[in-house]
Amino acid sequence: MPYNEQLAARVREGLASRVEDVTEKNMFGGICFMVNDKMCVCISRDDLLCRIGAKRVAEMAGRMGVKQMTMGERPMKDFVYVEKEQIQSAKELDYWVGLALEFNLIAKASKKR
User: Fold this and answer.
1) What Pfam families does this protein map onto (predicted)?
2) What is the residue range of 37's domain?
3) DSSP H or E run through 68
4) What does the alpha-carbon distance between residue 78 and residue 3 come to, in Å, rounded to a whole number?
5) What's the pLDDT tens digit per position in 38-49?
6) Number of helices and strands (H, E) in the chain?
7) Are strands 30-35 and 74-82 parallel, antiparallel or unpaired?
8) Stated pTM of the model
9) Is residue 111 part of a domain?
């Protein structure tokens, strides 16, 4: 199943109004929005993948519709999936994009191959 184009458009619009350096890459079977060459948010099917940092991930543990990203059995410490039901309104989506942008300021960029 391809990623949700409408959600991608909403994220694209939200990021464009807040930051200048945004690029898009196909990753995780969806599309990722890179800010300052660092992964920020991604769309995977209908869900939003947010890089919010380990501290925020721990704070969100147990929150309905939010789960930590795993690769196989390994939890990815900085990432959460947010289900579509949790990002229906512009305010809800802005909240998650805002958390990802906040972490982006201190996040380390992946090493270029």
Assistant:
1) TfoX_N
2) 5-104
3) strand 66-71
4) 21
5) 999 999 899 999
6) 3, 6
7) unpaired
8) 0.91
9) no
Whole-angstrom Cα distance, residue 54 to residue 52? 7
- 112 is a domain residue: no
- Write the DSSP symbol of residue 113: -
Query: What CATH number is associated with residue 65?
Result: 3.30.1460.30
**Count of structural domains within the chain:** 1
Distance from CA of residue 98 to its chain's centroid?
Answer: 10
Across the beta sheet with 47-51, what order do the strands follow?
Answer: 22-27, 30-35, 38-44, 47-51, 74-82, 66-71
Residue type for position 44: S
Q: What is the pLDDT of residue 80?
A: 96
Q: What type of residue is 27?
A: M
Is 52 within 8 Å of 30 (Cβ atoms)? no
With a CB cutoff of 8 Å and minimum separation 6, the contacts of 14 are 90, 93, 94, 97
Nearest to 48 by CA among 77, 85, 16, 78: 85
